[in-house]
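= Protein in question =
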Amino acid sequence: MDWMKIGSALLLIMMLFVIYPRVKHELKHGRKGSQKEWLGAFALLGGVALFILLLMKSV
């Protein structure tokens, strides 16, 4: 393992330690989405996944 991979892994771990308290707070105190909002988000993600699948099959 070279030094670049070790340094990248250490930076990733440090970033997770910095971000974790903020994510925990937002999950506890953030606003909850309605069922309509979640269905819209899943429909959008499904459309993107189908588009990527179409692109992969066309090559």
